[in-house]
Write a structure and sequence with these properties.
single chain; 135 residues; 5 helices
């Protein structure tokens, strides 16, 4: 899959995620919002897996990250009572924050060598904000 198609897929997934959030804000449209989120995530995962930057070892790493997350998420979703949903959402948001911190640290430890001047400064600010907000 070429980079232009991957970019289009990511933009489509982003649009579906926005529609998902809009749908989840109302009880009558929650099912449709959930469906938009599922479709958006499937598009994003497919684009990532079929992207030109993924090698054979990349597929192993991708599966090694997706499968445990899916199993843990399915287990938690099937066991939680509706009255405990705020606690589950809080725990899952903590994992999102942890992911943001780890991505920021990873970007800091392996910097892009072709960034210079203002681009490098913006990249460092982005890393700082991602780690700060995620933490």
């Amino acid at each position: 899959m070429n980079n232009s198609l991957v970019t289009v897929a990511y933009i489509a997934a982003s649009g579906l995620f926005i529609l998902s959030l809009a749908g989840l804000s109302n009880q009558e449209t929650a099912r449709k919002g959930n469906l938009f989120g599922i479709i958006g995530m499937m598009i994003a995962l497919t684009a990532t897996a079929l992207g030109s930057h993924v090698s054979a070892t990349g597929y192993t790493a991708l599966a090694g990250m997706i499968l445990p997350g899916a199993v843990i998420g399915a287990f938690l979703a099937s066991r939680v009572a509706m009255t405990s949903m705020p606690e589950l959402v809080a725990v899952l948001h903590s994992f999102v924050g942890l992911a943001a911190v780890l991505v920021g640290i990873g970007n800091y430890l392996s910097p892009e060598s072709n960034l210079v001047g203002a681009e490098a400064i913006v990249h460092q600010i982005e890393i700082y904000l991602g780690v700060f907000i995620g933490a």
